[in-house]
Amino acid sequence: MAQAYKAETGSEGQRPEGLRGRMRFVGRRTGAPGGGWLPGMWRRGLVLAVLALALAGLMLVHAHVPNRVGNLGSLLETFLPWFGLLVPVLLVLALVRRSATALLALVLPVAVWLNLFGGLVLGHGQSRGDLTVVTHNVNAENGDLPGTVRTLVGSGAQLLALEELTEQAVPEYASALKATYPYHVTKGTVGLWSKYPLRGTKPVDLELGWERALRTTAETPRGPVAVFVAHLPSVRVKLDTGFVAGQRDRSAEALGKAIREEPLTNKVLVGDLNGTMNDRALSPVTSQLRSTQGAAGKGFGFSWPAGFPMARIDQILVGGAEPVSSWTLPRTGSDHLPVAASIRLASTS
Question: Where does the Endonuclease/exonuclease/phosphatase domain start and stop, copy by copy (predicted)?
Fold first, then answer.
């Protein structure tokens, strides 16, 4: 009998190899001494878990990242929404690693990101208020002025602000827009076209040595509205000096002062601010006014660069008035997208 068993199994009375293999597999599945697969799910992926917690912490305390070295804090805040793309990357790695620890840790960056930007993702319904405003950096090298005008006029806005106007382009835009916007004012490289009368126009000193901002009053049927149009200085990212934004930051201080001194209840600031609402350097302005996109927009409303928008640096901000909706317009011949907003004016009676 023993001989027969030995002949059939090819062993010295030991268990068949297939059976022993199956028993080892069961041991791993159940956490028995032979394997420990379930406990391993918690031991694996500790590095991924640490990365997930670090990502959550960075988004949570972004305002405390110092600007002393290369304006690192402002650079981070400019592209803060994009940090959410790291979550699916870590999720895939956690699934490949079969790490329960990493999966659990990912809950925190997801919660932080949704707290910061969930309202924009969910969005708001588009509706119209008392006043529709559009702002557009038309680009000094725009080769399609007629197409740009068609897009802007098609928005139905009562107020239309343009930035990066050249001396040659001003009369061309004035002529093309005259039928729809009988009133307009320009100062330096910025201008405002309006369906309502404008008065009290003056330049706003951005401490640049030339004019890139103005303040005027639009006499709307619901009362006067103080309108500021501004184009803050550009920023640069350099390997040796980091995020260069000193002149923009000083201009933001000057613009914030002008807004603070404005006596009218309803205030609107439109223009290319070369910064996002998350950028602390714009706080002299953003601390006084509300972003229409942040309050009533659908999606992030990224406006630059037009080919693949990565940041919203073209802004419509209001004080007194209530944002109703905010959106971007189709691409024109500029490297920026036009942005639009509808607002409800506060009663001034």
Answer: 134-336
Domain ranges of the chain: 45-122, 131-344
Query: pLDDT value at position 22?
Result: 44
Question: Cα separation of 273 and 234, whole Å?
Answer: 8
Q: Which residues, in sequence order, are bridge partners of residue 133?
A: 159, 341
Q: How confident is the model at residue 23 (pLDDT cuts 50, 70, 90)?
A: very low
**119 is written with which tokens?**
């309202």
**For position 21, what pLDDT does the model report?**
45
Q: Which residues contact 106 (CB under 8 A, 6 or more apart)?
A: 52, 87, 90, 91, 94
State both tokens at 344.
């409800």
Superfamily of domain 131-344 in CATH is: Endonuclease/exonuclease/phosphatase (3.60.10.10)
Pairing, β 223-231 against β 267-272: parallel
User: Which phi and psi angles does 132 have, rounded to 5°?
Assistant: -110, 130
